[in-house]
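Two entries, shown back to back:
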Amino acid sequence: MVITEVDRTLQDYDRDGYTIFRNVIGRDLIAEASEHVAWLQAKHPDRLGEDLATELVAGDPFWVRLVSDERLLDIAELFVGPDIALFASHYISKPPFSGMPVLWHQDGAYWPLEPMRVVTLWLAVDESRPENGCVRVIPGSHQEDLHALRQRDDIDNVLGSESAVTVDESKAVDLVLSPGDVEVHHPNILHASNANTSPRRRCGLTIRYIPTSTRITSEQQPFVSALLLRGAPGVNVYQPFPRYVDGEHMRFADAEKWT
């Protein structure tokens, strides 16, 4: 039997709870994503770079263009099947010298999904390394149940909480990524990132894809960032795709296709 690169990647994911795809998105689109972060921060000066999140997505043509990119959907399909919806998306852009940490947590502990069938694609917009606060994971921890959460207001951090469990950080793996790389992780894996104390920004875009058979159980229905991206609609109600309006939205390479 011939073992393909995709087979190896899926084996890595099953064993470790994460895997990495290199050079998925090209330089031009990544440059637009970087510009998009700056544009969002100028438009929403009350928001930190770590807080460019879900409620902004469905009304933003470039954001929807990015999360619906066929290369990303092809990766998502490997994990959730051919009928794909967006559940949520979030830029975490840690500014130089002051970017906040993300404490150890499991994504699934925060999400109103039934069943918890979902995959996160983490698209690197910047170089992501230990010195500027790259994602860290505990391989194999995706096999644990979801832990309870506890509030943490004694330290500035992105989520304001963490998993109520002791983490052996000697087992942590730093995920070193270049712009355009995509890291994929399981909703149960314990992961975190340190503060950015370097002179370089660290920005990544999280994209949470679900099969359309997974129900969004939030009382916000239709969920604010739920979008049907590929295949049959399944069990949820979705937001319409936004139309590009010159002067209202950030201009991007194929904006005319979104008018």
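entry 2 starts here
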Amino acid sequence: MSRAGTRTLAILAQFARFLLVAMTTYFGLLAVTFFIGRIIPVDPVLAVLGDRAPAAVVERTRREMGLDLPLIEQFYIYIKGVLQGDFGRSVLTTNPVMEDLRRFFPATLELATLGTLIGSCVGIPLGVLAAVKRGSWTDQVVRIFGLVGYSVPIFWMGLLLLVLFYVKLQWVGYPGRIDVAYEYSFTPITGLLLLDSALQGEWTVFSSVVHHIVLPALLLGYFSLAYISRMTRSFMLNELSQEYIVSARAKGLSEARVVWCHALRNAAVPLVTVIALSYASLLEGSVLTETVFSWPGIGLYITNSLQNADMNAVLGGTVLIGSVFIALNLIADLLYRMLDPRTRVQ
């Protein structure tokens, strides 16, 4: 077989392994969420009917929901429904769970994306600066700044920022995603209000959205920054100690070019995974931020559903977040292979 044919087969085999890993991980996610949902001491029938429903009604509803079937059969029905985009109906909103997820997830996506952009655009330069100035007061300030981001509870800092910037200074909008005046008069297209208002030329709406999103986005950006800056510093210290850096300096290259074009380029390979994980954690872990700022995102939706024993909504939201984690990890793996020639198929 020719070299080109061998390479094609290797690429196809790699792609097949990629799909197998994705499908296996997703199946495991569905299995874990389903069986945890059945183990926890919450009766979905009583969540629908209430505690005072007659026993005959409870039994009939249990049969209609398929909860009288063996667990394996229930799991098969659940898998078939999920693959068709059917997570059941939410008890809390009475809507199909998939419809609720489509409505709530864009708010979380918008907030987490801004937080990740802030964390990356500020955290990477700070991490590089700390590594270059290792041991100096600049390095110490950056490290302390990041340590505070790790240590301070996010809900406490969120409340503090609300008191300062909303109550005292009145620089930002009240908790929520948009002013009440525009909530029902503005029709979103994608659910990403910043993008939708800009596309439609609704600049007053855009300004309102900015006033509401700036504080929670900065808060999430700060916590993302703390993680990204720390990891960037670690990766850069490792790269700056390599022999190719000494060789580049010996050739007379400027320090800026050595740091930003050579060291950072190699540090960017593992940094892709760090940013992807940070982004996924903001999509999944912004529950407290959404609660403090009354942000109508997926985290607040799952929290309210859990408090009301709405297990269809909880499982649907968990599967969605888990799917995002899987997708981002797989994308990070692909980018890793693109950036690092050593991982490419020969």
